[in-house]
Design a protein that fits this description.
- Helices cover 44% and strands 17% of the residues.
- It has 366 residues and is α+β, with helices and mostly antiparallel strands.
- α4 runs parallel beside α6.
Length: 366
Amino acid sequence: MKIVIYVILVVFYSRISLASAIGCKWIHFKDNVSIGEVSATLNRHRLVAVKILSNPFRAKICGNITKEKMEKYSHDKYVYSLDDGEAPVFKNHFYSAFGLTSEQRDTWTRAFMVAVPTIVVTFGSSAWDWGKNGVKFGFGNEDWFDKNSYSGGADKVGHMTSLYMEKRLATWLALQAGHDMKTAQRYGLYTAGFIGVALEVGDGFSKYKFSSEDLLMDSLGILFAWALDEYPYLDELVGLRFEWWPSHEYRDSRNKEKTDVTSDYSGQKVYLSLKTAGIPYLREHSWSRYLSFDLGFYTRGYEPDLTPEDKNDNIRRRYVSYGIGLNLSTLLFDSYPDSIAARTTSSIIKYWTPPGVSAASKRQEL
């Protein structure tokens, strides 16, 4: 509880300090710059944007911006100008990182919004036996995070995290295609929302049944993703990270469900991370910039359970933990801001974290 209160206070403090900071400036980026170059510039100069507008890209930076800092920023290879104006320098500008025209962008976006849900629904129907043996649609109660529920709540956290990532991926792709931020947000919400509803309707025709609990957790993940995409300073400050490494039960030769990695709950952990890269002063120094304070939740012994009849084998346990982690995503991005390979890897580990990156100082079984 203490760490949750601390996170809330830091978010509140950061918001107030940014809102009331002296000397807000707008960075106008060059006409062939994508969201990737915007992120590279902000990371290179230890900047956190209050607002990012597109297309074209321009970022509002608030803080004690000295003449020396202004000189440094204005000479960055991606920056066109730095001034007090919000209006875009290139008023009729259009740029797509994928090299699309505006017509191709719209066609590509419509195809994406059809293809992604189709792939997810196809996977769900095969992995979770939708409609198998003539199962009729029905509603179910999964008992939230109760110890006696089938996953101990790991599936609920999984729903929130997966929809969070899907919404952010859809928004990012829309930005890369050339949409403005407002439109990209809308496409992200549409895509993730459709996926969440489609999965629950599909589950309604399986042993899991339609779950209002899952739908609520989906919504929380989508709304959290929207807030972080809408407010860049929050994105620098907090985030969800997913850790998965195949569990012993998953690797066991008796486990025939190797395609269903999403249900390997004994190999998963989910962290709510508070990142020092988003905290004034701490983000300015390399010794403090790459840390995170992680609040974790995970279960063990639920699924996969290869011996459900043996009560002494897979003993069910639920844990919460907190500790200090390493923000590998920012570290890698800072080290190679202009490398496409580094950016891609950085984007992946922003959401998936390798085992051992977060060290729990305390773990409590529920």
